[in-house]
Amino acid sequence: MQSSFDSDLPLRDVVFNTLRQAILIGELKPGERLMELHLADRLGVSRTPVREAIRRLELEGLVTMIPRKGAEVARITEKSMSDVLEVRRTLDALCAELACDRITPESLAALKKACDHFEQCVGTHDAKKIAEADVSLHDIIVEATGNQRLIQMVHNLSEQMYRYRFEYIKDSSQHDTLVKEHRIIYQSIVDKDKDTAAAAARLHIDNQKKAIIRQIRLESRAGR
After folding, report:
1. Distance (Å, rounded) from C-alpha 43 to C-alpha 1?
2. Greatest CA span in the chain, whole angstroms?
3. Tens digits of per-residue pLDDT, 147-161?
4. Which residues pair with 65 in a beta bridge?
5. Among 26, 166, 109, CA closest to 117
6. Which of 48-52, 159-163, 164-168 is modeled with the greatest confidence?
7. Rounded to an integer, what distance in angstroms lies between the CA atom of residue 113 and that of residue 95?
8. Would you call 30 helix, strand, or coil by DSSP?
9. Helix residue ranges, H only, the chain
10. CB-based contacts of 175: which residues, under 8 Å, 6+ apart?
């Protein structure tokens, strides 16, 4: 876990972003204790920005405060994951439908390029690169709606969803499915086929949900 102190951001924001990224990619594991002194030493900062970062992470739902124990990385549970994906499923379907009508030729070309880039990243087997490519691809569809309120809602939800998406992407057995689903979504938008686009977007989320639930249950049994 490294912090970018050459950033123009205030120190408290750098520490927050560093801890947040470490949680999202699983470097700080679900259930792991977050001890201020240890993290401060590790990052080479005082305890104050670490304490502030932990409070902000709690507000985002990435950290849980446990009585008499302190802060720990929030655990990924079926309920928390289902709540997020349930909303995202509906919003993604709506975005796909609207993109069929509203996407510009330039954005359509960018979407094709993003699909190709995603497939290249899959070949690297680098989960972080694949996750970033996946986010970029979906962002193009969301932005194509031109609905600023919808864009804001999806982006806010994406922050919470990243952990679950990363867990899914770490499972290389799902990569071929992801590539196929992206192709279907892209082609349905090209064809302005709203029904297929929305159905493909919903299936995309449904498959993530099933895979992550399997993973959560496997890890739960392994922890017993």
Report:
1. 8
2. 58
3. 999 999 998 888 778
4. 71
5. 109
6. 48-52
7. 19
8. coil
9. 11-24, 36-43, 47-59, 78-102, 105-124, 127-144, 148-169, 175-190, 194-222
10. 122, 130, 169
- With bands split at pLDDT 50, 70 and 90, how would you rate the model's confidence at 8? confident
Token pair in block for residue 115: 């699909």
Residue pLDDT, tens place only, 62-109 = 899 999 889 999 988 888 889 989 999 999 999 999 999 999 999 999
* Calpha distance 200→86 (Å, rounded): 15
Q: Which amino acid is at 30?
A: P
173 in helix, strand or coil?
helix
d(CA 44, CA 186): 45
Instruction: Say yes or no to pLDDT of 163 above 90.
Output: no
